[in-house]
Design a protein that fits this description.
Layout: H1 2-18, H2 25-37, H3 47-53, H4 74-85
Helix pairs in contact: 1-2
């Protein structure tokens, strides 16, 4: 089960990265299923389990949303640091 869930999380993350304006969650899930199956007739059949676990850090998506990471680019953080070190 763990292997299938991990594969699904990867497929879901890829689908979220591909998400375009106007895509509903159902469209993202359909795209994730397409990625998961990889052209084979393989369906992800642990959707209830994933829905129960999807907010857990181990199984949650790492794309978009508030995943606890800091926002902003490295460059803007570097600029903020250099601004505070400059002589005024």
């Amino acid at each position: 089960m763990n292997k299938k869930l991990s594969k699904w999380v990867g497929a879901y993350d890829n689908a979220k990265r591909m998400q375009q304006s106007g895509w509903s969650e159902n469209v993202v899930l359909a795209k994730a299923q397409e990625i998961y199956s990889g052209g084979k007739n393989e369906h992800f059949n642990l959707m209830l389990e994933w829905n129960a676990l999807r907010d857990q850090p181990r199984y949650g998506s790492h794309v978009g949303g508030n995943s606890g990471s800091s926002s902003g680019s490295k460059r803007s953080r570097e600029n903020d640091a250099s601004d505070s070190n400059s002589i005024r």
